[in-house]
Amino acid sequence: MLPKKVKKRASLLSIFFIVSVLSIFLILNSLNKNILYFNSPSDIRLNKNINFDKKIRIGGMVKKDSLKINDQEIKFVITDFKNEIIVSFTGTVPNLFAEGKGVVAEGKLLDKKFFVANRILAKHDENYMPPEIKNIMKENAK
Amino acid sequence: MLSNIGNILLLSNVLIGALIIYYSFNCLKTSNNLVFKNIYQLSLIQSTLILSCFFTLVAAFLVSDFSLINVYQNSHSLKPVFYKISGTWGNHEGSLLLWVIILTVFSFLFLVLNKNHPKNYRLHTLIIQNLLILGFLFFILFNSNPFSIINPVPKEGLGLNPILQDPALAIHPPLLYVGFVGSSIYFSAAMASMVSNYNDRSFAKSIKGWVLISWVFQTLGIMVGSIWAYYELGWGGFWFWDPVENASLLPWFAMTALLHSLLVLEKRNALYFWTIILCLLTFTLSVTGTFLVRSGILNSVHTFANDPSRGIYILVFLSIMIITSVYFLFTRYKPETNHISGNSKETFVLINNWFMMFYLITVLLGTLYPIFTDVLFKSKISVGPPFYNSVIAPVVVFFLVFMAIGPQTKWIKNKFTNLKQLSIILGGALLTNFTIIFLFKSYSVISNLIIISSLFLIFSSFMDLFKKTKLNFARIISHLSFGFLIFFIGLNHNFTIEKDFNLKLGEEKVIDNYKFVLNDLELINQINYKAIIGKLRVKNMNTNEERTLKPEIRIYDNPQTLTYEASIKTNFFKDHYLTMSNIDRSEYYNVKFQEKPLMIWIWISVVMLSLGGFVSLFKNAKNN
């Protein structure tokens, strides 16, 4: 038999251990569920098994002359100069949102060509281009 | 001219820092318990010089001396005087100078105010703090010098980004810096305590005031930043789990844990090494946050221009700090002899610390995860608010319950005698919660639990006020307002109403029970911007409540920037929040309308929370 003190300490340690394992599991599990993948229109086109229920981010340039606004929504086309995707959005846009500028839209895909955004992001810096888009542009330039 | 003065002052600061270290080592060799007089004098001169250095930069901004690159890039001769001054610390270089000021002034004050502590401990603290000061001075001199000159001298500056021209953002950096740069002093003190074997409750006494000061300012700084984000960024939220916000929250968790474990060290002379780890962790996290924000490794709404070379310098500095701290921890570590009973106030304080560590790890993982996946798998991801909410919200429920019970327990050995009282409080919390559901509408299970547990904390803190024993006002105020904070955030989160739509001039739109009319657009000319002001009439058709909101679209001249100003109408029950944007002069204006209940109470709760810290600080100063 182990002494009482050792037993007590062992049980405390095991509680601590179980709690930490549980909380790490909780964190990682939730992390896996809630990350937003960043895609370019080309990624979407090439991807065969898209989960349409999952929120994603799409980045690229707002195509010139693609912007249409009516009383319901703002519609525009995101392009990475290879592939395009139509985006529909309701709400206010960031101040740097304009045709020919970089944009990141957050939302869900309806199908491979149509995206419903619930948030449009842009950084508060006129020369800003999301690094993700910069990379895409670089790759496309090759 | 001003550039030369500034550079000379910076260099003389390096010299004085080195001298202080030299004399401190000399003084350590002497056997009496007196600190050399010249160390005091040098320390005072050091503080004076760094302040003059800062005022030199302020002067350069005031007279618009565009021969300094820093002034040229961040100021404009037509900018209002207030923003010329606040522009001094609104940029990377200037903010680093502010950083060094706090390091230096805290170093001086710590030396002067801790005269009843042993010489060895004070001098070691001074030496380590001055090493930190030198590290940052070199960073300023070689990488981010605010006094660098530009040739030929430009006629006009580029101007400060308009979204930074804001009173909240003018005071946000100084508050936050006192918070997380202030934590440097107990980083140094913790190292000194290990080196000089000054490891009992008097060590806890010597740093308690400093932990409190930094905690109070960190809390206020985070709040002011959050208020700014609320009205300036136009999303209507006050917390976005943006990397920059997370960076300020990480040291806050460590500080809060430290604040509590210090109590155990002070009262029971236990948990010494754990307290030391928290001291080291707080400042390390502050520097980590700075690294993440300034190096451009993470995407965020922040506007600091990014430069990888800065990142490398801070990273090297950070690594040295971490390696030395870990080295000292391992070489000096002794297992504690004091045994802590499972049911005692000590354990409850430890439980608080576990929770804080849990939040800290969660936020740290969420913030760093995108970097890992980018490096390891080349996949671009971002971790959004749902992650933090889903991990933290359920845990907060338990946290609040422990926070209510903890203070009722006794040191050393506790017995639960007040179970009856606790169940009455729980009953009251449940009743109030279901009244809220009945009066308004239902909300999710987790929200229910959060509201119930926050009410549990609020009620039991109130009950403490009527106890016959000596009252700990600081604790009651802080715990009570934290309960209120979570309570209001819970309600605000659940009952916020949001409507997005597009509207033409004169058009009327009905969505659910709200009617919106864009009555008028007015054009005005201000000194440094032009604005289109919309007049939107909002009517709640259920309550017949009517309001006119006036959102603005501003076009600033220097630098030319377009901004959208939210229109916010606040009262004690709710905020009405409306932003309006326009794309390419289209006839449609894009409108976002939000009704956010109890917004003002969230800010008031945070102010009260830090007030608790002030009360404790005051009491601490009186006792010593």
Features:
heterodimer, A: 142 residues, alpha+beta, OB fold (Dihydrolipoamide Acetyltransferase, E2P), five-stranded mixed beta barrel, 3 helices, 7 strands, B: 624 residues, 4 domains, six-stranded antiparallel sheet, four-stranded antiparallel sheet, 11 strands, 12% strand, flat
Structural topology:
The complex is a heterodimer of chains A (about 140) and B (about 625).
Chain A: H1 4-34, E1 35-39, H2 41-46, E2 56-62, E3 68-69, E4 74-79, E5 84-89, E6 102-111, E7 114-121, H3 131-141
Parallel strand pairs in A: 1-2, 5-7
Antiparallel strand pairs in A: 2-4, 2-6, 3-4, 4-5, 6-7
Chain B: H1 2-29, H2 37-62, H3 69-74, H4 81-86, H5 92-113, H6 119-142, H7 167-195, H8 201-232, H9 243-268, H10 272-295, H11 308-332, H12 345-377, E1 381-383, H13 385-405, H14 419-439, H15 445-465, H16 473-495, E2 497-503, E3 508-511, E4 514-525, E5 529-540, E6 545-549, E7 552-556, E8 561-565, E9 567-570, E10 574-581, E11 589-597, H17 599-623
Antiparallel strand pairs in B: 2-11, 3-4, 4-5, 5-6, 5-7, 7-8, 9-10, 10-11
Helix pairs in contact in B: 1-2, 1-6, 2-5, 5-6, 5-7, 6-7, 7-8, 7-10, 8-9, 8-17, 9-10, 9-12, 10-11, 12-13, 13-15, 14-15, 15-16, 16-17
Give your account of this protein's structure.
The complex is a heterodimer of chains A (142) and B (624). With 142 residues, chain A is α+β, with helices and mostly antiparallel strands. Chain A has two domains: 1-34; 37-141, OB fold (Dihydrolipoamide Acetyltransferase, E2P) (Beta Barrel). In chain A, 34% of the residues lie in helices and 31% in strands. Chain A has helices spanning 4-34, 41-46, 131-141, and strands at residues 35-39, 56-62, 68-69, 74-79, 84-89, 102-111, 114-121. Chain A has a five-stranded mixed β-barrel. Chain A starts with a helix and ends with a helix. Residues 124-128 of chain A have low confidence and may be disordered. By secondary structure, chain B is an alpha+beta fold. Chain B has four domains: 1-160, no CATH class; 166-380, no CATH class; 388-495, no CATH class; 497-600, no CATH class. Chain B contains 17 helices and eleven strands. In chain B, strands 3, 4, 5, 6, 7 and 8 form a six-stranded antiparallel sheet that branches. In chain B, strands 2-11-10-9 form a four-stranded antiparallel sheet. In chain B, β7 and β8 (561-565) form a beta hairpin. Chain B starts with a helix and ends with a helix. The interface between A and B is large, with 41 and 48 residues.
